[in-house]
Every structure is written in structure tokens, then in C-alpha cells.
Design a protein that fits this description.
Blueprint: H1 10-43, H2 54-86, H3 106-131, E1 146-147, E2 153-154, H4 156-189, H5 216-236, H6 241-254
Antiparallel strand pairs: 1-2
Amino acid sequence: MIFFSRWLQAPLYIGLIVAQVIYVVVFMVELGHLGEEVLHGFTHPGPDGIVIEEAKIMLGVLGLIDVVMIANLLIMVIIGGYETFVSKIRIDGHPDQPEWLSHVNANVLKVKLAMAIVGISSIHLLKTFIEVGDLAARGSTSTEGQESITGDVYTWDGVLWQVVIHMVFIVSAIALAWIDRISQAAGHAVTPAASVAPLEPQPLVSVLPVPRPTGTAAIEAGAVGHLLQLGRLRDAGVVSAAEFELKKTELLARI
């Protein structure tokens, strides 16, 4: 009963799949807004021609990247969490199997989620930096808000807190990775003695000397060896062809 209670989490992952579908819709809406911004620049040219605000395009692209990274986070939670806490996903050998799924566990999943959150926070912080890039030029202080190019209101205190929160995310991710590395090192260091197979004694193999040929076989082997040596000397020019033939006749006569 307790073991089967893990299936109570299955509806939670189904809900995350629905959230994934919603983010697909959000992505298409954001992409449509970006297309409208570009189309507006073409249909309403200024005195100097077509005007497309680069900052707005960059913010739109960052918004799309933000949606994609959150969707990736959902995928990791759905697949990795289901694999870790609910049931095995039988896709061994499948060509589309994610590389990280083969060695996923609770610690690895936490580290990957932390890194994904750091990436999402980085995108949000970059968007904030772009939007408030001209606050200093406007003379903004920490107590009065200024409207950015997208219409949002920012203060220096708000930007500072975003930086602080982002640094907290980074420190948390580093701490999780460090803890995971320590646990892996401890797991490798502690090896049960029973898992180490004892060395079996290997039989001693006596090396017997190779018997040398005797009698007629020895004479033939010696004659062939001399002929080969004479042939090399003849090829090198040390022995003439006549001397080689004479010596060959003598050696063949001994066989």
C-alpha cells in the first residue's frame, strides 16, 4: 500500500504537462507580438526610413528564450521526477532518449533544476538591465520609479534586490553541486569488502625447451641458413656470384 502510494504523484506530472501546453501557447503569443513589432517598423517608416527599435526586439527575443528555458525546466521535472519518484520509463536504447536521463537521480535532478533556475534568473536580470539602462541618464534615485521602454516601472532598489536574489540562486546551485560531489566521492570511497572478488591462484605453467632438430634435419637446417646468409652477402656485393655458386654446391653436397 505504501509503495503504491507513489502513483498519487502521477496526476501532478499530468498537470505539469498541461502547463507545458500553456507555455507553448504563451510562446506563440510572444512570437506574434515580436512579429507585430517588426511589421510595424516596416509599415510605419520614420523620416529616416524603416525604424525597428533594437532594444524592443532584444527584449522580445529574451522573452522567448525565457519561455523556452521554463519549458525545459518543466521537461526535466516531468521526465526526471517521474523516473525518480514514480516509475521507470522503459526507453533504453531509444534513439531519442535524453542523455541525462540514463544517470538521473534525486541529487542530479536537484542540481539540474538549480542550474535551470539560475539560467532563468539570468534572463530576467538581463531584461531588467536592458530596460533600465537609461535610468541614470534620467536622474532616477532609489526611491522614485522610472518607466522603462516597455512601460514597466523600475527603481534602483528593485534592481538591486534582483541582483541579490540572482546571487542567492547561484550560491544555492553551487552548494547543491558541491554536496552532490561530496556524496558521490563518499560513495566511491566506501566499497564493501564482499564486492571485491578474491584473487584466484593462477596455475604455474612450466615452459619446456623447444627441442632442437638433430641428425639429417639439423644438417639441412644449417645448410639452408648458410645459403640464406650467402645470398644476403651476394646481394650486398660482398661475395661474387661465382663464389656464391661454388659455396652453394658444397653445402648442397653435404645434405
